[in-house]
Automatic annotation (TrEMBL):
Signal peptide: none annotated. It comes from the Eukaryota. This is Vanillyl-alcohol oxidase. Keywords: FAD, Flavoprotein, Oxidoreductase.
Amino acid sequence: MATTIGLQDLPPTPLLSEKHSGIPERWAEQCKESKARLYSLKTLPASVPREGELPVLPPGIDRPTFNTAIAELKETLGEEHVELNDKPLVDGWYMEHPNTHDTFHVLEQSKLVSSAQVYPGSVEDIQTIVRWANKYLIPIYPISIGRNMGYGGAAPRVPGSVTIDLGRRMNKVLKIDGNSASCIVEPGVTYFALYEEVQKTGLPLWIDTPDVGGGSVLGNCIDRGVGYTPYGDHWANHCGLEVVLPSGEIMRTGMGALPGKNGADNPSWQAFQHAYGPSVDGIFSQSNFGIVTKMGMWLMPATGHQSYMITFPEEDDFEQIIEIIRPLALNRVLGNIPQLRSVIQELAITGRPKSDFYDGKDPIPMEVIKAHAKNMPCGECAWVFYGTVYGPEETRNSQLDIIRQEFSKVRGSKFFLPEDMPEDHYIHPRARICSGVPELRELDWLNWKPNCAHLAFSPITPTRGQDARIVHEIVTRLHKKWGFDSLPTWCVSGREMHYIAEILIDRSDPDEKRRAICCMREMITEAAAEGYGEYRTHLIFQDQISRTYGWGNQALMRFNETLKDALDPNGILAPGRAGIWPKSYRDKGWEILPEDEPRTSVKTNGVIH
Ligand code: ADP
């Protein structure tokens, strides 16, 4: 039974002024409400006693050696900057998340855990930690904020790794440059924090934020996350990295490799991405080849904007809708990364649980969803398209004319502006996100189930109706087979779309977790057989997905392994991340592949528990 917790019973979320990952004052009230909604459905206890000797050790390291190594690290960095993971695990919630494990555990909570967390205060500290890891052969796992929810959160892939929580002490916006419209951030700068810093400058600049603003600008970017302004492709808009390599050496990419006058940073570091020679930035995203300590990011000159929403009544019309989207996206009439969302999300984003809409345990039928939508501001429909146009009013109006005209070809479509919708409708936070203002509202669909976690299946398709149909059909069928509601969204970036299907899981239900894993495995396999691959995934699917990119008898993986072995001969940095295992781990049973399923456990030390 859900415990009813009143607003007054919940401790407040730390403010940004108190903690680097905290909530800025201006969102404090919204944060309090989000938290109360989520906790009102929580039936799991805050923590459970842990079993076995703690902390969980890194593979191949005995306890005396581990204790010696930790004592040495404490001695070098300071006692207070090294913390053993030997206390009960607390999942918390988005704004107060753990750095000890995956808060959205799809395996047992205790499986993907660190042995310790370490908090470097400088690049030199990071170099010290890396050299220490090489000395003791202890795997280390860097995180920036650790809110990579749905993809593993703060958890390391190898249990017992030492998590380097970079964000706690390295969280400054080092520079905001109004001339080149760019900034340099340390790992612990969240979208909320960067927004605040940009506001303080008074410069007419926007940041680009993903759906929720608590992640780090750096961590999200190197995991190739997306946002929704015209700068929504985060990796495409980064400019210049500073990286500590697994050897402990430090390097800068792009123009940053050329020292500025008298030892200054290169003046073009944040102005030109490619510089000279091989473009190596890419190998530091979704990889385990280096620890990124600074990153340049482009900011968007502020401009006029107008958000809108279009509803479509027929579920089967999505092919036609996508065929209309493609030329509009390619011609940049659609100014941003718009979303085509299933109407079920209009129900979920209200923050009300599924049980308010449907009694059954099975996936909620479309007729039921539509019947509810009829009484909601969007009205009876199957799809909702959220878009924004940018620029001066005249430009926006002419773009909107074309958009209205093109989408009116879909029978029964209806066009809305934010002012047509009530104040609490989702279009308002959506409009803010699409003009670079971080938000929390997207968390509300996590109230669909008690103890709700999400797991994203996110394949890429060309922006073409026939491709969309193949993937959508696989997802719909397999969600139904494994008993999950399907909540698809297409995020359209132009020539391609990220199809994001979130599986919602009750963390207290082991069988639901097992089914979610089975569903993911089958979707990955079936989509790959049709030629579609995912752009990003949770830790436990990284082996499977990386191997679907197997053209030329796994040529890409062999290349990545060659790089890994050259850069990290001791295999200490995030072994297994992105499916890339160093030679000391390779083919020793660490990989988790579909033939291991159905299982809800993970291999540690090559043994299946
Ligand atoms: P966020 O900051 O958005 O909450 P995370 O800190 O969880 O995201 O980062 C996402 C993933 O990217 C991490 O799990 C980790 O594997 C990797 N990562 C994050 N920060 C760094 C970094 N500074 N250097 C190398 N890898 C990183």
